[in-house]
Specification:
The structure is a single chain. 60% of the residues lie in helices and 12% in strands. The protein is an alpha/beta fold. β2, α4 and β3 form a beta-alpha-beta unit. The longest helix has 77 residues. It is elongated and about 115 Å long. The chain starts with a helix and ends with a helix.
């Protein structure tokens, strides 16, 4: 009977866990809707901005903007976009693994010389790299409390200032790109200097009908910082939507697994109960037979 009691306690525990995972799935589904709306609304603007910059890319050659100047990447900054919370499957660890692979394969020499810095957006990546004594810059965990363009721009501007002053020669960005609720695409992009080949495929001059005022050069000088800020903001929105998609999928799978475990536990409980009843009946029959004998 002690075994039956243990199984009953475990069944109650699994049922409680299943209720929690169901609730978390519903919460993530609601948050995913809002996060998806935000990234879907931004993408056309970001794409058009890249298109315009691509069509004007001839002006980049003579541009004096410091954000397109190629330098020897002696000092590297990597922006790692994760989440503040877990329970999202391999969402955070995939970003961290991709960052570690990037350092090992591309910037190993800079890392050995202590010239690789990390800007973590999200508590999970912040904690990971702080505990391993990486050179982490700032703390941006609160950005998700109010995920606005202005708040992300503050991070971008500090990074742009560091690049302009020569604190970093190259800035890379690692994040999960949102595709759908079940699929997140690990993405690594160069943020600074602005890669000339990152612009969209140029449209034929005959297809372009822009009236430029005051001048092409001045417009490009304004578009470059705007494009950098939009790129990081888009990456954070992508990651935010991907996080909720990953958590919703993870909690859905956890709910299914809890259901399978409940079936197995109830079967085990019924088998143990039947065995206990059979044992009691056998004991009663045996006792009665002994008295009659």
């Amino acid at each position: 009977m002690a075994n039956l009691k243990e199984v009953r306690i475990r069944i109650a525990s699994v049922q409680s866990t299943q209720q929690i995972t169901k609730a978390m799935k519903m919460v993530s589904a609601a948050k995913l809707k809002r996060a998806t709306n935000a990234i879907v609304q931004l993408r056309p603007y970001a794409t058009k901005l890249k298109e315009i910059l691509g069509n004007l890319s001839a002006s980049l050659e003579g541009s004096s903007s410091p954000f397109i100047q190629e330098r020897e990447p002696n000092k590297v900054l990597i922006i790692v976009v994760s989440s503040n919370r877990g329970l999202a499957g391999a969402f955070n660890m995939n970003v961290i693994k991709a960052t570690n692979n990037l350092i090992a394969q591309k910037y190993n020499e800079q890392y050995k010389n202590g010239n690789v810095s990390i800007v973590a957006i999200g508590k999970k990546s912040q904690d990971f790299y702080e505990k391993r004594n990486y050179n982490t810059i700032g703390n941006n965990n609160e950005v998700y409390a109010a995920l606005t363009f202005e708040n992300v721009t503050k991070i971008t501007e500090s990074i742009m200032e560091g690049f302009e002053k020569g604190k970093f020669d190259k800035v890379e960005l690692v994040y999960n790109k949102f595709k759908n609720a079940a699929v997140q695409i690990l993405t690594t992009e160069q943020l600074l200097p602005l890669p000339k080949n990152a612009t969209v495929e140029q449209v034929k001059p005959a297809d372009i009908d822009y009236i430029l005022e005051p001048s092409k050069e001045n417009i490009v000088e304004q578009l470059i910082p705007k494009s950098i800020k939009i790129q990081l903001y888009k990456a954070v929105l992508d990651s935010h939507a991907a996080e909720h998609g990953a958590r919703m999928t993870s909690m859905d799978k956890a709910t299914e697994n809890a259901g399978d475990l409940l079936k197995a536990l109830k079967l085990s409980y019924n088998q143990a109960r039947q065995a206990a009843i059979t044992t009691e009946l056998t004991e009663i029959v045996s006792g009665a037979a002994a008295l009659n004998g």
